[in-house]
Write a structure and sequence with these properties.
It is built from 22 helices and 13 strands. The protein is an alpha/beta fold. An 11-stranded mixed sheet has the order 2-1-13-12-11-3-10-9-4-8-7. It has a two-stranded antiparallel ribbon with strand order 5-6.
């Protein structure tokens, strides 16, 4: 028989709430069956301050990332490595990321654009949209109206100039300078800097001085003048390539007046340079050092340096060492270096394996798009990815990538708004359709509403 007090309590509860809560008997089941009872859980995100990338696949949550906001306790370094086969969305990610970062007023971006379409670099549309003229380095037009960057620009320190000259020569020769060649270059550089009056010293001055060294140079080392000339001959021949060879016109004169280093976006268009030639790493070295001494400044701006085809940097020991120093130096001044590479094996098995490992170690953010199974296993081993992430990399569809932000590993679908799509869609010749599917367009529009809403007024939100 039931307790009268319990009966009274139930009656009173029913009067107040309209019904009495039922008591359920316990159920015995297995974990395999019970998993459907519990709601799924997802790893925590990276916060709500920064730029939105897309959605975390398993939870559907918005995925927001910003190296400057995360730098410190959550992120030991602001540098970022992007990997993956062509056609999976690396280019679209880079471009939307830059466009969204530029909505913050204290951001500035430099892009080394090594790929081209329709005779211009693939960042040309974005530059036009922002009213920016790309800095197009092209040896075919350099002697007429092209852009010049002077390795001996007075804005670069004397030490920086000499280091840059050595790097150019070592990259072209494929080995380091010996002591005698280094001495010949040093004295020629010192003489040119001392005697160039009322003008910028140029590479032609260095080549001329190497061919005709001053007697004082030989006397200082108590050697014959012909010996000093012989020591500098190979160096002169390498530099002559920049003066009168296939790279002529781009670096053998004063820096072009009017290059706007205060523009929010600076694009170096390298699309007219053969990506597989020795010219590309030489260009990377010159542009890298020139930027280090003319662009990176202690003015509280947050800067992003994005390099397409970055294996030209990481696969050359001399250029890799130069950029390694740039990354260490730039971190103190708010620089985030973004390297885009197709295959990790291009760099970790190359001539600069040691330097590549050092640069990869500084990249606390790694984004990996679809790769073949063997490549995915190698990438997972080098980067220390969890097993589950390695197993799904070969199955990823375009636009979806594994993000590893200092050990926080999630699968993210990148979202592109309709306004961004015409600017980032770079494979038009192969895939564009003159009669788009209206249902597909509607679905894309609905999927991008979240980003559009949060990008309308960045002053009212921490998300841009």
């Amino acid at each position: 028989m039931r307790d009268p007090l319990s009966v009274l309590t139930e009656a009173f509860t029913a009067f107040l709430f309209g019904k009495v809560e039922t008591t359920r008997l316990p159920v015995r089941t297995s974990t395999g069956q019970a998993q459907a009872v519990y709601l799924p859980t997802a790893a925590p995100g990276l916060g709500d301050s920064g730029v939105i990338i897309g959605r975390e696949v398993y939870s559907g949550k918005g995925y927001i990332y910003d190296p400057f906001q995360l730098y410190g306790q959550q992120l030991p370094a602001p540098h970022w490595l992007v990997l993956g086969e062509s056609g999976n969305g690396k280019s679209a990610l880079e471009k939307t990321y830059v466009l969204r970062q530029l909505r913050f007023r204290d951001r500035q971006v430099v892009v080394l654009d090594a790929q081209g379409e329709d005779g211009v670099g693939e960042w040309n549309l974005i530059a036009q949209e922002l009213g920016i003229t790309p800095i197009r380095l092209d040896p075919m037009v350099a002697n007429d109206s092209g852009i010049r960057l002077n390795p001996l620009d007075p804005s670069i320190t004397t030490t920086g100039q000499l280091a840059l000259l050595r790097t150019i020569i070592e990259v072209a020769m494929g080995h380091g300078l010996d002591e005698r060649s280094g001495f010949a270059l040093k004295v020629a550089h010192a003489y040119v800097n001392e005697h160039a009056v009322d003008r910028q010293p140029i590479l032609t001055d260095i080549v001329e001085r190497l061919r005709h060294p001053e007697p004082e140079s030989a006397e200082a080392m108590n050697v014959a003048l012909d010996d000093v000339r012989a020591w500098g001959l190979d160096v002169a021949l390498v530099l002559d390539r920049l003066v009168d060879g296939d790279l002529r016109g781009m670096f053998d004169g004063p820096t072009t007046v009017g290059i706007d280093l205060d523009a929010p976006l600076i694009v170096f268009d390298l699309s007219h340079i053969d990506r597989n030639s020795i010219a590309m790493p030489i260009l990377m070295a010159i542009v890298g050092v020139w930027l280090e001494h003319t662009w990176i400044r202690p003015d509280r701006k947050k800067r992003i340096f994005l390099v397409e085809e970055a294996w030209h940097i990481i696969n050359s020991p001399f250029v890799a060492q130069l950029f390694q120093r740039l990354l260490k130096f730039g971190r103190r001044l708010g620089l985030s270096f973004v390297a885009v590479v197709h295959h990790l094996s291009d760099v970790v098995d190359g001539a600069a394996a040691k330097e590549a490992a050092a640069i990869l170690k500084m990249a606390s953010t790694r984004t990996i798009y679809a790769q073949k199974a063997d490549e995915a296993r190698n990438t997972g081993r080098v980067l220390g990815l969890p097993r589950w992430a390695v197993e799904i990399i070969p199955t990823l569809t375009p636009g979806i990538a594994v993000w590893d932000v200092n050990g926080n590993v999630q699968v993210v679908k990148h979202l592109i708004t309709e306004r961004e799509r015409p600017l980032v869609y770079t494979d038009r010749a192969m895939t564009e359709s003159s009669d788009p599917d209206p249902e597909l367009e509607w679905e894309r529009e609905q999927r991008a509403i979240l980003i559009e809403q949060q990008m309308k007024d960045p002053s009212q939100s921490t998300v841009a």
